[in-house]
Write a structure and sequence with these properties.
The chain has 11 helices and 11 strands. By secondary structure, the chain is an alpha/beta fold. It folds into 2 domains: 110 residues; 210 residues, no CATH class. The N and C termini lie far apart (68 Å).
Length: 375
């Protein structure tokens, strides 16, 4: 197996259906293979991939952003798919072992002649190699598990009440210091207002509780767990009038997630102030792949006029927007960067924040504040 053989295999993979239209994943694979061909595999890191492939800045922190790990899993999945289809006859296999970003090329030997009985020594060598390979895979898997646990622990530590930044504390103290529990309401269909669905399609393409809502659940439950506060999670169809009277609410996925909660956000809108251009921030799709590339979202706080309870609403046009809204509402840097009117104190009892998010291969990037509105 020569370097030229390896390079040819890489080119075959890059032009296969699994990678042909995924430019970021192509660049990911090209970069790690270039490092390999230069004998620099040891220099490959999450930071290198984040900055050279995904355009992240020098402040990228792997413990805070799982983008590279998520994309690496997608590359591994597509490699497996390639070798199950177009590449099934290849005698050279490219793999990225779990726990590392360095590529590994394996040459498949020609099958042994039929009827040949392997010697006892060969059988022991095969058994030993299999045991060694399994041990390496188990060690790599355990390493990635420990890294994931460490990242989760760090996130929980940063979200403890004592370490909340001033902006996070200013927003969330209403809920965390309240004498009543909070209900986290998770939307059942619909996830958002799908008036911008693709031409020729029927209904809302996001009629499910999506990955964005799952990430939002994780962020908010982690915040409450770290603060040692009670959080009740309910599906929207299970919420009733008594819940609204007795609890604070965090609504995920839309202002119309439930007949009882619909009236709490009747004034909400994705519209911009008169000085803004709504088209600049409209939900957008790739014209070739049909995948979403940009979404809009809202983070809105309301004080219930009748009960005095707090209601925080986070939702996007699509699941990716809800993901971005939750990141915005639990991100100190995002909240600190909001520009409030001169005569208004930050985080008044009623406000709307319009959020924009770019979506890369289905994965939302960091939320971007667009406008602040005081009802």
């Amino acid at each position: 197996m020569t370097i030229d053989d390896q390079k040819q295999e890489v080119q075959r993979i890059l032009h296969a259906p699994q990678f042909r239209r995924a430019s970021k994943l192509q660049r990911f694979l090209e970069l790690i293979c270039d490092y390999h061909f230069q004998n620099r595999s040891g220099d490959i890191s999450e930071f290198v991939l984040a900055t050279e492939v995904f355009g992240k800045g020098p402040g990228f922190e792997p413990s805070e952003d799982s983008l590279v790990r998520v994309q690496a899993r997608e590359v591994r999945r597509r490699l497996r798919e390639y070798y199950q289809n177009d590449g099934k006859s290849s005698r050279l296999i490219l793999d990225i072992p779990v726990g590392s970003y360095a590529p590994v090329f394996t040459s498949l030997e020609a099958p042994a002649p039929v009827g040949r009985v392997p010697s006892i020594k060969a059988a022991w060598l095969i058994l030993g190699g299999t045991v060694l390979a399994c041990a390496v895979l188990l060690i790599a898997a355990d390493r990635e598990r420990r890294l994931l646990m460490r990242s989760t622990a760090l996130a929980a530590e940063r979200m403890s009440v004592g370490s909340l930044g001033p902006s996070l504390a200013s927003l969330w103290r209403r809920f965390l210091d309240s004498d009543v529990p909070t209900i986290l309401v998770v939307s059942n269909p619909d996830v958002g207002e799908c008036a911008d669905r693709q031409p020729g399609t029927a209904g809302c393409t996001d009629e499910y509780t999506g990955m964005g809502e799952a990430v939002a659940i994780h962020l908010i439950t982690n915040l409450y767990r770290s603060a040692h506060k009670t959080l009740i999670v309910k599906q929207s169809r299970m919420v009733n009038a008594d819940d609204i009277k007795r609890h604070n609410l965090v609504l995920l996925g839309g202002k119309s997630v439930n007949v009882w909660t619909r009236r709490l956000g009747e004034d909400l809108s994705f519209g911009l102030p008169q000085s803004g251009s709504i088209q600049q921030f409209a939900t957008a799709f790739d014209s070739k792949t049909g995948k979403i590339t940009t979404d809009r979202a809202l983070v809105a706080l309301r004080k219930h006029p009748a009960t005095g309870r707090w209601v925080l609403i986070m939702y996007g046009h699509h699941s990716q927007g809800t993901h971005a809204a939750a990141e915005a509402a639990t991100g100190e840097r995002f909240l600190a960067d909001l520009k409030w009117p001169a005569a208004v104190a930050p985080f008044p009892d009623n406000f709307d924040v319009l959020v924009r998010v770019n979506v890369n291969e289905g994965i939302p990037e960091g939320p971007i504040p667009v406008a602040v509105r005081i009802p």
